[in-house]
Every structure is written in C-alpha cells, then in structure tokens.
Amino acid sequence: MASDHGDSVFANVVRAPEDPILGVTVAYNKDPSPKKLNLGVGAYRTEEGKPLVLNVVRRAEQMLVNDTSRVKEYLPIVGLAEFNKLSAKLIFGVDSPAIQENRVTTVQCLSGTGSLRVGAEFLARHYHEHTIYIPQPTWGNHPKVFTIAGLSVKTYRYYSPETRGLDFQGLLDDLNAAPSGAIVLLHACAHNPTGVDPTPEQWEQIRQLMRSKGLLPFFDSAYQGFASGSLDEDAQSVRMFVSDGGECLVAQSYAKNMGMYGERVGALSIVCKSADVAVRVESQLKLVIRPMYSNPPIHGASIVAAILKDSHMYHEWTVELKAMADRIISMRQKLFDALQARGTPGDWSHIIKQIGMFTFTGLNAQQVAFMTKEYHIYMTSDGRISMAGLSSQTVPLLADAIHAAVSTVV
Ligand code: KET
C-alpha cells in the first residue's frame, strides 16, 4: 500500500541549519542581483572575479591525461607514496633531519579537513590526553571535526577585539593553565579568521612553554605560501617545533596554495621521536583510514606530486602562488585607502596589518546582515571577509557598504 508523506520513517528528522561558511555561498547563489559579491568562503578569485586554475596545474594535469600508461587502480590506504614524501619536504624543509631520520610518517588524506579528522581520530584512540585546545576564535569547522573524532574541545585566548591583534598574554596564560599533555591546535600561518599571526619571537615563546609543559602541537597548515608569498617563510612555525626534536602533528591542504579546492588533496604528517615509533603510528593510521574511506583519490595527488617533483614546474608554481598572495595584499591596501577616502568612522589599519586570505573586520552580525540586504555583499556573520574574493572593481562597492553599515547600524 502506498503511504503518504506523513508516514516517512524519517518524519522526525529536523531540518539542520546551513553551514556558517559554506551556507554563505548557498545564499549567494540564490540572490538574483547582478552586482552580488561573495566574500564568504576562502576561495581565490582573479581580478575578473573568476575562479583560478593555475597554469602549472593545467599543465601537470594535461601531462597526466596524455600518459596512457597511467591506470586508475586503488592507491594504498596511505595514498601516493611520492606525494607523501614530497608533502613532508614541503612543510618540514628539504633538509629536515626528522625526515632523514625516518621519524615522520605522512599519509595522504582528503584535503586539510580530512587530515585533521584522521589525525584527531588517531589521537582519540592512541593518545592518553583527549583534550584539544583550539584558539578563540578559529575556523568554524575545527570544534566539529575534533568533537566528532572523540576529543574534548577547549579554547585558549588568541584575539583581542580591542587591539584587533594577538592576545599574547591571554594565550600564554591559557596554555600555561592547560593540563600537561593536552593537545593544542595551532594555525601554522595566516590564522583564520583573524589574519593575526604571532611574531617569530612569540612563536619561540609558545614553543618553549608548550615543550616545557609537554603539550602536543597539532598544526593546521591550510595556507602555506598564501600569507607571505613564500612557502618556506610560512612554514617557519612548524619547522621551529620540529627542529627541537619533539613530536607534533601537521595537517596540510593544497586547496588554497595550489587552487585544488575540489580535488581534496592534503596530507597528515606525524613527527615521532624515532623511526620505530613512526612505523607503528603509520600502521595504526591505516586502521583509522580503511573503514572511513578505504583509500584516497588518485587524481589530485598525482597532479600535486608532478608539480612538486619537477624543478621547473615547482618554480612556476611558486611564481603563480606569489602572484595570488600579492594580489590579496594589494586588495588590503585598496580597501584601506577606499575607507580612508570616504572618512569611514573608526581605525581600519588592521586591514593592512592582518595577513593571509581574510580580514577580520570587526563588523558585527547586524552590520553584516545590513550589507547583505542593502548591498548584496555576502560574508560570514562574524565579520570576516575573504580578501581573495575582492577585485579593483568591487573594492568601491565594499567600501560604500562598510561605510554605510558603520554609519547607520550600531
Ligand atoms: N583549516 C583551515 C584553517 C581552513 O581555513 C580551512 C578551509 C581548512 C582547514 C580546510 O580546507 P580543505 O578544503 O579541507 O583543505 N577554510 C575555508 C573553506 C571552508 O570553510 O571549508 C574557509 O574558511 O572559508
């Protein structure tokens, strides 16, 4: 007998809210206005407002497609071996003693998010302390990933709304008060959403404190090369922690720095004290991955490996990456100048002081809602804007909107 809709076995399922970041794109897509602007998700756009596939990525992909000897067999559970080796070198440095001593295990995962998730599940199963401290604020998906993996999430102070800079003392105090052995999530560079990074001297103090208390660093490196334009410079925080011989985890993403967003390419590395431990850790990572998604996809990782292993292609990538980073930095200056020119109330110097893909504007949720309603500008309700989504043509519109928002909405 045909049943009516009321009889669904899922009748009690309640409708979930959209994701705070990806939901902004959903709302943007529904808006029919021709002048609409999406500054929500952290995805690079060209001066013409178009998504960018790097030339070097196109070239590598073409090479792979033309190679008819390539097959589509399953990868091993840990992914493409060559990709894993090259990814470790990219983040830890070509001469890293930890790599030479075989103390690092690297497994290919589903971009940055998948790497965080696999690392977190490994920790939940095999590490004695289940509390992870994440910065306040942080990327909105962090608490969800870690909670669902079985860790218990606490926060440490990071950002001071008054100075729109780092709350360094708050950070030190909170890490100092954390139980010994606790896991600490650190953004390797270009902190999301604040755009505020510790200085090298502050990183060194954080390192000393964490090592003295036996806190375990878990780095999220989603923006290597995007902050300064230099891959090495943006890896300094991680390398500082690895060079002291201690242990740590690193989740790497190629979504932003290679524009591989939808290919879901990333890696999880665990730096261990000895090669023997690294082998055992890797064997357990396989037990986390196998029932989760069996093994990772081959296409994107092959593209990344092709670029990383060829010195010409690698160089071409660094040039294209620097161009993306520079365009973002120039948008910061343009937006700052446009607000100055309008005499917009308030101090906007944080726009040029912050670093990476985002500006944490300080606009409140009401002001953001006003800008969306009146100006068709889409951004996350915490006042974060993706500078990578701006162009010379759209800066005046954004400046008008910010000016109106701070002048009329309290
Ligand atoms: N870590 C951070 C800090 C981060 O900002 C993102 C993505 C990721 C990890 C995950 O990226 P993946 O695509 O899994 O490699 N952030 C942007 C996109 C998103 O929310 O998914 C964003 O904040 O807009």
Structure commentary:
The chain is an alpha/beta fold. The chain has two domains: 19-53 and 326-405, Alpha-Beta Complex (Aspartate Aminotransferase, domain 1); 74-309, 3-Layer(aba) Sandwich (Aspartate Aminotransferase, domain 2), CATH 3.40.640.10. Helix content is 44%, strand content 14%. The protein has helices at residues 22-30, 55-66, 81-92, 97-100, 111-126, 142-148, 168-177, 200-213, 236-242, 275-293, 299-309, 311-342, 350-353, 365-375, 395-408; strands at residues 37-38, 104-110, 131-136, 152-157, 159-160, 165-166, 183-187, 216-221, 248-253, 265-271, 358-360, 377-378, 384-386. The strands form four sheets. The protein has a seven-stranded mixed sheet with strand order 2-10-9-8-7-3-4, sandwiched between helices. The protein has a two-stranded parallel ribbon with strand order 1-12. The protein has a two-stranded antiparallel ribbon with strand order 5-6. Helix 6 (142-148) links the parallel strand 3 and strand 4 (152-157). Helix 2 crosses helix 11 and helix 14 crosses helix 15 (395-408). It is globular and about 65 Å long. The termini are far apart. The mean pLDDT is 96.
* Average pLDDT metric: 96
Shape, please? globular
Number of domains: 2
Strand percent estimate: 5-15%
The number of strands is 13
How are the strands of the largest sheet arranged? Answer: 2-10-9-8-7-3-4
Derived structural class: alpha/beta
CATH topology of the largest domain: Aspartate Aminotransferase, domain 2
Percent helix: 40-55%
* CA(first)-CA(last) distance: 58 Å
What is the H/E string?
HEHHHEHEHEEEHEHEHEEHHHHEHEEH
Any idea what the CATH architecture of the largest domain is?
3-Layer(aba) Sandwich
Q: Counting H and I runs of at least 4 residues, what is the number of helices?
A: 15
Q: What is the assigned CATH homologous superfamily of the largest domain?
A: Type I PLP-dependent aspartate aminotransferase-like (Major domain)
| CATH C-level label of the largest domain | Alpha Beta
Enzyme class: transferase
GO molecular function, one term: L-aspartate:2-oxoglutarate aminotransferase activity
EC number: 2.6.1.1
GO biological process, one term: amino acid metabolic process
